[in-house]
Design brief:
This protein is mostly helical and 313 residues long. The chain is built from 13 helices and 2 strands; from the N terminus they run H-H-H-H-H-H-H-E-E-H-H-H-H-H-H. It has a two-stranded antiparallel sheet. Helix 6 runs antiparallel to helix 7.
Length: 313
């Protein structure tokens, strides 16, 4: 009975729209939030150990929040076997640790506007990787057109109108794209192992394990975060909550709806990322390259994730 009620709620079009939009809004808000955290904690763009420590605290806390949520909803927090622990650990070290090593360093060397657009390339990497891994998820002309539009958007956002070259740095824009590729590969691995375990528990533990690894990296390099006040502490809690809430809600939507109906909302992430970076960081979006790139990336994601309509018999 409870499962039927939950299914009925989360398959309603209005609920799907509101919940999916909320998830993308939360993910989009992480770009200005992280950069604001750097400023509050006086983390310099070249202070990689402190960036890793900041990320580690966030994801360990996010994992703890999800575990508490799972416990409150009556789920068992246990992992059934050593093999599952190994799989979750691999997922945590790739999807959380390695990805966010590149992401946090890249975000320190790129604007929030650029990062939110560039990170959207993860959608296209997922499509390309899935083509070589899954026999039932091949590239189509529509998907190829979407990927092409997205990558052109990435090129446009890095174009310097003052000179005929591209404003690209390995530690900035390069690391953001590497983070997107890492996430795409790790997500495919996560999809495989999630067939044999609870998605919420898997996500909670991988976030916690990945966060602990990031903290260990920061500590091993001699870093500390000694400038916390109530504002920076609240910001850290917000970042942790947005990760845990968005992951839990997104996973629920995917459980009760066709994947294509949910992932189509991914195009809103760069939209919210760009808009919120402009609002909270004062970054400009009134440049032709940002507007054109945003249209191309969002259009590309729409083409890639749009459900193929079937003709009636």
């Amino acid at each position: 009975m409870m499962s039927h009620i939950t299914n009925s709620i989360f398959t309603r079009r209005e609920t799907l729209f509101l919940c999916a939009t909320l998830c993308t809004l939360l993910w989009g808000s992480s770009y200005p939030a992280i950069k604001s955290g750097y400023a509050m904690l006086e983390i310099a763009r070249d202070n990689i150990p402190a960036q890793m420590l900041f990320a580690g605290y966030r994801f360990l806390l996010a994992g703890v929040f999800l575990l508490l949520f799972a416990k409150l909803t009556g789920k068992s927090l246990a992992v059934n076997s050593i093999a599952h622990w190994r799989q979750i650990s691999i997922l945590g070290l790739t999807q959380t640790t390695i990805q966010y090593v590149f992401f946090y360093i890249g975000l320190a060397h790129a604007t929030g506007v650029k990062a939110s657009i560039l990170n959207a390339t993860g959608t296209f990497f997922s499509v390309l990787l899935a083509h070589f891994i899954y026999h039932n998820d091949r590239l189509t002309h529509r998907k190829l057109l979407g990927c092409l539009a997205g990558f052109i958007g990435v090129m446009v956002v890095n174009f310097n109108k003052a000179a005929l070259d591209f404003e690209v740095s390995l530690q900035g824009e390069g690391f953001i794209v590497i983070a997107a590729l890492t996430l795409a590969a790790a997500s495919i691995y996560g999809k495989c192992i999630s067939q044999h375990m609870d998605v919420l528990i898997m996500t909670a533990w991988q976030l916690a394990i990945g966060g602990i690894a990031l903290i260990a990296i920061g500590w091993s390099m001699g870093s500390t975060l000694g400038h916390f006040d109530w504002q920076s502490a609240l910001l850290l809690i917000y970042l942790a909550l947005l990760s845990s809430a968005a992951f839990a809600l997104w996973g629920t939507l995917l459980k009760y709806n066709p994947v294509g109906m949910v992932t189509i909302f991914n195009f809103l992430v760069p939209v919210f990322g760009v808009a919120l970076s402009a609002i909270f960081l004062g970054e400009t979006i009134m440049e032709w390259k940002y507007l054109i790139a945003l249209i191309l990336v969002c259009g590309g994601i729409f083409l890639v994730t749009r459900l193929q309509r079937t003709k009636p018999d």
